[in-house]
Amino acid sequence: MCRHVAYVGEQETLGRFLVEPPHALYRQSWAPRRQRYGTVNADGFGVGWYAEGDPVPARYRRAGPIWADQSFADLARVVRTRALLAAVRDATLAGADAEAAAAPYASGGRLFSHNGAVRGWPGSLAPLVRTLPPEDVLSLEARNDSAFVWALVLARLRAGDEPGQALADTVLEVAAAAPGSRLNLLLTDGGTITATAWGDTLWYRAEPGRGTVVASEPYDDDPHWREVPDRTLLAASRTDVLLTPLKDPDGDPAEAPAPAPPKEPST
């Protein structure tokens, strides 16, 4: 129910990924090309980025559509970063949490986004509340499914899980409790990107030695974009992309994705 994008690599402006491309996230807010659920992402937006020398990302979020923010394009034109995560939102359910419900969510040096919806929310995930420390439940940033899924991921990260394990285990836990949920998760720590394809589209583009972009859909028609198969965990850095099949909650392995193609030199 949204579109999101993350990047790690050489320093670039926010606008290089979010505004300037012909089908950038800015345009995807009203005209996504590959979105399977919903048609307009006008229920908020946000971008998080890492300033040079500061491991804690900054965030800029708003409750309204990105095209209605008259300052954003100018901000994106001049702010430079080596890593970012941004999203435009189509709310699963109407709520009163305003920009607090807009991704990216953040904790310490991490940024997180959820593209999808938890089926049967909130009742379907009520049994999972007991798996979280009470203070985590009481301090949820917003009263929506994405914020709760982030709390589940964050609890695993704080317990010492690697990002890929934290995302994979959370997806399987939520999918078992709420079958039919769409759980495309996106996480960055400023140096790596971890993501899941589970029920909606996910693509990546790697430029060796320069950087890697992971996005709900391509923001241009560059032939180097590669689609991530459904039921897949993606782990990426500025130089490598690794795809790993996820298992369905019943234990049957998902269809194995094809290996990532050899990287070609950028031109």
Would you spell out the secondary-structure blueprint of this structure?
Layout: E1 2-13, H1 15-18, H2 25-28, E2 45-49, E3 58-62, H3 72-78, E4 80-89, E5 105-107, E6 110-117, H4 134-138, H5 145-158, H6 163-177, E7 182-188, E8 193-197, E9 203-207, E10 211-215, E11 226-227, E12 232-236, E13 241-245
Helix pairs in contact: 5-6
Function: Catalyzes the hydrolysis of the gamma-glutamyl amide bond of hercynyl-gamma-L-glutamyl-L-cysteine sulfoxide to produce hercynylcysteine sulfoxide, a step in the biosynthesis pathway of ergothioneine.
Pfam families: GATase_4
Biased composition (Pro residues): 256-267
Distance between the termini: 34 Å
Q: What is the CATH class of the domain at 2-113 and 185-245?
A: Alpha Beta
Report the C-alpha radius of gyration, rounded. Answer: 17 Å
The pLDDT mean sits at 91
What is the tally of beta strands?
A: 13
Strand content: 25-35%
Q: Spans of 5+ residues with little confidence (pLDDT < 50)? A: 252-267
Helical content band: 10-25%
CATH architecture of the domain at 2-113 and 185-245: 4-Layer Sandwich
Do you know the CATH topology of the domain at 2-113 and 185-245?
Glutamine Phosphoribosylpyrophosphate, subunit 1, domain 1
For the largest sheet, list the strands in their spatial order: 3-2-4-1-10-9-11
Give me the number of helical elements: 6
Please, what is the CATH homologous superfamily of the domain at 2-113 and 185-245? Answer: Aminohydrolase, N-terminal nucleophile (Ntn) domain
Main beta sheet, described? 7 strands, antiparallel
Pathway: Amino-acid biosynthesis; ergothioneine biosynthesis
InterPro entries: EgtC, EgtC-like, EgtC_Actinobacteria, Gamma-glu_amide_hydrolase, Ntn_hydrolases_N
Biased composition (Pro residues): 256-267
Protein name: Gamma-glutamyl-hercynylcysteine sulfoxide hydrolase
